[in-house]
Amino acid sequence: MRFRSSFLLVVMLSACTQLDEEPLHSSIDNRNNQSGTLNNNPCSIALTALDHNQSSQNISRYQHAILRNHQALANLEKLGWAFVEKARTSFDPGFYKLAEQTVACLIQKQPENVNALMLKSHILHNLHRFKDAELVARQVVAQRGSWFEYAVLGDALMEQGKLDQAALAYQHMVDQRPGPQSYSRAAHLRWLFGDLDGAIELMALAVQAHVASGSESTAWFQTRLAMYLFQAGQLDSAKKILTTTLARHSTYAPALLVLGRIHLAQENHAQAVKIFTIAETINP
Predict the structure, then answer these.
(1) What stretches of the chain show up as alpha helix (H) in DSSP?
(2) Choosing a second label site near 187 at 20 to 30 A (CA), which of 36, 51, 68, 80?
(3) Which has the closest alpha carbon to 24: 127, 113, 102?
(4) Is 3:178 a contact under the CB 8 Å cutoff?
(5) What is the Rg, in whole angstroms, of the alpha carbon atoms belonging to the chain?
(6) pLDDT at 122 over 60
(7) Are 16 and 178 in contact (CB under 8 A)?
(8) How far is residue 173's CA from residue 152's CA, in Å, rounded to a whole number?
């Protein structure tokens, strides 16, 4: 389903590589020998093997490929995104710090790597360094300006309360790529402006456009929709969505949190405490 290019602004108005000759692992070893420590070198930190419980298949695969000097720059970027994915699914912000070190390593090798800068902006946003994220995102948008880059810029602006500027950034995003990512952001802006019905309508579109994937992103869309429905007093509809979410992602803490709040509102206190306890254990 596609909307005309002015869709998002109408929403707002109505609501208010090439590798160096020296192999990467060799340069890491040389720096380590000179410094006598692993801790001051972002490449060493990014490539340090994690234990089985912390790592993922993607993280291990990209680390091994880089150490073999197999498309090291491309795999460094993929490693950074693998750390971001792990942070999202594990609710452990330490993986964002590992992603940040991976980006620093990549920028050491290619200071003007636009993909690295885009990843850096995304990481800074997730670390709540919103002004820094905005500055990097603006740099990338000026060089390339893809839909995802406008999305990250809009997110950084939104978190700083610069809602009019965020709407303009999201408008560029929806012009290039209408879809669940842009619908969900438009929904959040409507919610911020007090248009709960509009937020529900748009987040429902995001869920419908993405539900088949069953990914963590789908769980996030469904949880936000359930939260909006809960605020609108549609408790049964919200619980139905959360049941679907938790059937696929049984340990998804944000969904458990909303479900617990619904039980609390219904004065099912013992059940609410049980659910909150599980959610807190997963994501303190």
Answers:
(1) 7-15, 24-35, 42-47, 57-67, 72-90, 94-109, 114-126, 130-143, 147-159, 163-176, 180-192, 196-210, 216-231, 235-248, 253-265, 269-282
(2) 80
(3) 102
(4) yes
(5) 21
(6) yes
(7) no
(8) 10
Structural contact between residues 45 and 75, judged by C-beta atoms closer than 8 angstroms: no
Buried residues in 15-48 as b, exposed as e (16+ CB within 10 A): beeeeeeeebeebbeebbeeeeeeeebbbbbbbe
- Neighbouring CB atoms inside 10 A of 99's CB total 26
CA distance 275 to 279: 6
For the chain, percent of residues with pLDDT exceeding 90: 71
Predicted model pTM: 0.79
Alpha-carbon span 233 to 228, nearest angstrom = 9
pLDDT at 169: 96
Q: How many residues in the chain?
A: 284
With a CB cutoff of 8 Å and minimum separation 6, the contacts of 95 are: 83, 84, 86, 87
The average confidence (pLDDT) of the chain is 86
Provide the residue type at 70 as one letter.
H
